[in-house]
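In the laboratory, one determines a bound structure by crystallizing the protein with its ligand and collecting diffraction data. In a computational setting the workflow is compressed into a single prediction: the sequence and the ligand go in, and a structural description comes out. We illustrate the idea with zinc ion.
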Amino acid sequence: MTKAKEIRNGKQLCPRCKEWKYQSEYWPTNHTATGRRVYCKICSVVKHREWAKKYPLRYMNGMRASRQKVKAKVLKHYSNNNLACIWCGEDRLVCMTIDHIEGGGTRHFKKIGKYGSSFYQWLINNDYPSGYQTLCMNCQLIKGARNNESAKSGYLDNG
Ligand SMILES: [Zn+2]
Ligand SMILES: [Zn+2]
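The predicted complex, in structure-token form:
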């Protein structure tokens, strides 16, 4: 995918729109000799959209894969780099979640307005704030039940 690219007066030719554009019009990348993408920013977006339309499944999988990457990164950080539930060692990504050590998760989610994958991204953007830990769904449920002994929710106390 690396093509030798010509730079003229600080400008690079975009093969799609056939325009010579300043390098600032191209996103940086490590994959080309010029250090910039082959297509200009505008064409990159258009091409990406076309690709997403043509290969919806691959597009969806790619989105999911990148979300999982973000999730794994955060879970790893909050489990002492083990990428596993800190209580029971559950290590299936789909089972794990970020737990608020002090509780009050739902309130906090509402406050920052982040849910799911955007919450993981929020944690990264905020330099991994403390007060969180990696738990699996089961352990989070158990913790919730323990913290909520007085609640007469029934089924949680039967175990
Ligand atoms: Zn272009
Ligand atoms: Zn667990």
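Residues 61-156 form one domain. Keep in mind that any predicted model is a hypothesis to be tested, not a measurement.
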